Amino acid sequence: MKSGAKGTGSAGAKGKGGGPKVTKKFIINASQPASDKIFDVAAFEKFLHDKIKVDNRVGNLGDTVQISQQQGSSGGGEGKIEVVAHTQFSGRYLKYLTKKFLKKQQLRDWLRVVSTSPGVYELRFFNVVNDEADDDDE
Fold this sequence. Notes:
Shape: elongated
């Protein structure tokens, strides 16, 4: 019993200690649905600003987490949101919030969140198989 309490106490102390500074960069690529005008990137950015928790409190982003839209000169960067965190931050948490936003906008039935590479999440349409497409393959 004592060893368990000692272990959790030291783990709590590690978390509070601040430790080495960690910088993580995440990109959420919503360019495909944004180009089809069904996904509002600005509203999603505001949603992330309002919902991301830092130290268990919403609206506590400060300088630890920055959220910005990536602007591409050729239009390729449109629909991408970049989240830079200077603290421990989980990509799964971003995925969770993205799904929550899609559900709120009633887009969850058409879009899914896929991790294409570490730190990069992409919104894709579900693959709908048509009979015509099957005929083309033959």
